[in-house]
Design brief:
single chain; 273 residues; alpha+beta; seven-stranded antiparallel sheet; four-stranded antiparallel sheet; 7 helices; disordered C terminus
Length: 273
């Protein structure tokens, strides 16, 4: 990613207002300079470079009542790690576009900007004295006709999610991620299951439009999903960027000192005096 494109994206993210209901989120358009976005579109890889997510057998849809596996999740969804795309592009003699973009997405600078932006939410979820260790994942995702995902809150270790929407125009604007609320306002889900649409109310949809970004903070009520894609021959491209919690520590107040340390400090002070 060029310096100007990086700065543009950071500016857009850093200054975007955060909406708080029903959970912290924001939407941006444009997220990249237009010329850069055109280049990104031109560098989208063929589907052959991607893998069907359903083949992993890891993510499954669970019946909320009987709590049994009823189907593989993500039919019609393909994904590829950005580093793998870069390797394929390099082998094919193509520009190093995905490597440059991946380095920016995986940078501490972007991560810290997002952690600062969602600081109030981190404090509410983990406590004001929490010190988090985090890790990042970024991948290109491609959805086809029949893809759908019911309301869910994301995995328990998820912290922040960014969805960079990559369509050429706004023709499929209705295929953006929707925000849901359970009919019981007190209902919570830590994120280990996907739900059917029954019992949930759709309260907002982020438009799937060119050069845009939907970002949100994971909570046990950050329900989101996508209605089934019913149009024929649909290709829905996006970049998924996630920050995960690796560890949670506690920061000691600056005034805190263990008894032995306080004694040693006083003794040293008087000796030097």
């Amino acid at each position: 990613m060029t310096f100007d494109a990086e700065e543009f994206a950071l500016y857009q993210i850093g200054n975007a207002p955060v909406l708080r209901y029903p959970f912290a989120h924001f939407f941006i358009q444009p997220i990249f300079p237009e010329e850069y976005f055109k280049t990104l579109r031109a560098q989208l890889p063929p589907t052959e470079w991607m893998s069907p997510m359903a083949e992993t057998g890891v993510i499954k849809v669970v019946d909320g009542v009987k709590k049994k596996v009823v189907s593989q999740a993500y039919p019609g969804r393909y994904s590829a790690d950005l580093a793998n795309i870069e390797e394929r592009a390099e082998a094919a003699g193509l520009p190093h576009f995905w490597g440059d973009l991946g380095r920016w997405l995986m940078s501490d600078r972007l991560r810290q900007l997002l952690l600062n932006k969602f600081h109030p939410d981190i404090a509410q979820r983990f406590g004001a004295d929490a010190v988090l260790g985090t890790e990042i994942d970024a991948r290109l995702v491609r959805d086809f006709t029949n893809y759908a995902i019911g309301p869910h809150t994301d995995a328990p270790r998820k912290l922040v999610s960014l969805l960079f929407y990559l369509p050429a125009d706004s023709a499929l604007s209705h295929l953006g991620t929707s925000i849901f609320a359970h009919q019981d306002p007190s209902y919570r889900c830590e994120g280990k299951r996907h739900h059917g649409f029954d019992g949930f109310k759709k309260i907002a949809s982020m438009p799937y439009v060119s050069n845009s970004l939907f970002a949100f903070f994971k909570t046990d009520y950050s329900f989101h999903g996508l209605d089934q894609i019913q149009e024929a021959a649909v290709q829905r491209d996006l970049i998924l960027y996630n920050i995960y919690v690796q560890s949670v520590g506690r920061q000691r107040p600056s005034s805190w000192l263990a008894p032995w340390r306080r004694k040693h400090t006083r003794a040293t002070f008087f000796k030097n005096d």
